[in-house]
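Title: Comparing notes on inverse folding

I've been comparing how different people in this forum approach sequence design from structure. To keep things fair, I'm posting one structure and asking everyone to reply with a full sequence. Here's the target:
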């Protein structure tokens, strides 16, 4: 989501005739696009502003510095008032007004543009996408859920779906420009409902799946409580939807889930996993887990480990709880010492690494269709891409391979975090090769 927001900001600048600087030090305008989901992000912004203060003095001509994204929405006015380096702040709901902010700065004003209008301006045609084969498309803005730990409803506003016809036009345009994989974005993407027709998320996937040239569709992030049986059937019935399903469960204890205000229980989550796997046996589930939520006991954490063991996620993003401004959980008693939460996170990661290694090993000798990203590291002979389930796949490059190619790779090895393989033309093993 932040990558796409940066592309939107860059697009507004390029549309007004500005060009990208070759190096950050040479830029006349520097924008910091920020995330405030965790505390560390705010600290990073403050450090970066300190560095920019020195850079501003050494450039020898005026440099404009703007703070954008969720930290701008959350802390913007206060930071603008006390920072000598910041010229303006611009929240995520105001990207289209970047030009207005720059005009105000040119007239000698410091401006703060934050908040959300009911009909957010979303100028898809201005996004500076860079022409890659993998592209992002927002289908639903904001969030109405108010999980008690989460700052998103305050920084990204109320939930608002984009009209289905508008999303389809955007995807058609991207495919015409060379996109192969479209990742649909939304905080609660499966709560999507077209404001013009009432079409739901399953309808959206079905429609996009039949847009000529769409090779693969991915989507993040689904909320467990918004899946319906019809939606699951629609996802399963759309052949070019990827097999990667990101479904955060956050905690395995019902008491913690209730305090988080997540709207489901451990059992209903496990029941949902059963339905998803029943309809899509090849699906790889991925999840977010929060450890150290206020009041989390060792028994609560044990329930989280139990869910991880039972579901066997292909990917897991684990975080230590950090209190966020304006959120109810920031006032909850029972804050855990950092050392306790850190030790639990380590145990979670150790369990997940074992599960992931076993799952990845089980794919050896299978094939996987990969969208090629490019060299794994700058100048490396080993290239990488991603399979339909978002797994990273590393392979030796061959003559003529290019980023954006689709390649069939046979898996010859695995680590906890990646598959290793060779393209089928170079495969010396037996056949037939089952799909991964
Ligand atoms: S559903 Fe996701 S984005 Fe919305 S409040 Fe909960 S954690 Fe935050």
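Reply #1:
Here's my take.
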């Amino acid at each position: 989501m932040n990558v796409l927001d940066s592309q939107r900001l860059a697009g507004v600048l390029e549309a007004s005739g500005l060009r990208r600087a070759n190096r950050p030090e040479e830029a006349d305008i520097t924008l910091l696009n920020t995330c405030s989901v965790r505390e560390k992000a705010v600290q990073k912004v403050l450090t970066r502003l300190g560095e920019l203060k020195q850079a501003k003095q050494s450039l020898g001509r005026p440099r404009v510095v703007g703070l954008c994204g969720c930290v701008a929405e959350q802390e913007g006015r206060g930071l603008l008032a006390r920072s000598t380096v910041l010229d303006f702040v611009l929240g995520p709901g105001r990207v289209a007004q970047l030009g207005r902010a720059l005009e105000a700065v040119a007239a000698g004003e410091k401006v703060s543009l934050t908040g959300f209008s009911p009909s957010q301006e979303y100028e898809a045609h201005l996004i500076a996408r860079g022409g890659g084969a993998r592209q992002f498309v927002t289908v639903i803005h904001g969030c109405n859920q108010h999980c008690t730990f989460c700052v998103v409803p305050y920084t990204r506003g109320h939930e608002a779906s984009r009209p289905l016809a508008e999303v389809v036009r955007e995807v058609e345009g991207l495919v015409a420009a060379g996109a192969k994989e479209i990742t649909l974005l939304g905080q609660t993407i499966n709560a999507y409902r077209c404001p013009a027709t009432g079409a739901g998320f399953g309808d959206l996937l079905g429609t996009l799946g039949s847009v000529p040239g769409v090779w693969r569709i991915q989507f993040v992030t689904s909320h467990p409580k918004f899946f319906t049986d019809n939606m699951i059937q629609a996802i399963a019935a759309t052949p070019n939807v990827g097999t990667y399903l990101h479904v955060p469960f956050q905690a395995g204890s019902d008491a913690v889930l209730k305090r988080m205000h997540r709207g489901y229980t451990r059992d209903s989550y496990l029941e949902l996993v059963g339905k998803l796997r029943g309809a899509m046996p090849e699906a790889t589930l991925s999840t977010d887990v929060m450890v150290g939520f206020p009041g989390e006991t060792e028994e609560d954490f044990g329930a989280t480990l139990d869910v991880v063991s039972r579901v066997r996620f292909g990917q897991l993003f684990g975080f230590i709880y950090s209190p966020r401004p304006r959120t109810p959980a920031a006032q909850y008693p029972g804050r855990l010492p950092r050392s306790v939460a850190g030790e639990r996170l380590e145990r979670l990661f150790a369990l997940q690494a074992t599960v992931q290694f076993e799952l990845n090993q089980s794919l050896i000798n299978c094939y996987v269709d990969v969208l090629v990203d490019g060299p794994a590291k700058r100048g490396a002979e080993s290239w990488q891409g991603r399979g339909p389930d978002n797994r990273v796949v590393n392979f030796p490059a061959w003559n003529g391979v290019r980023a954006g190619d689709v390649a069939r790779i046979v898996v010859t090895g695995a680590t906890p975090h990646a598959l290793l393989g060779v393209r089928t033309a170079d495969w010396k093993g037996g056949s037939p090769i089952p799909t991964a």
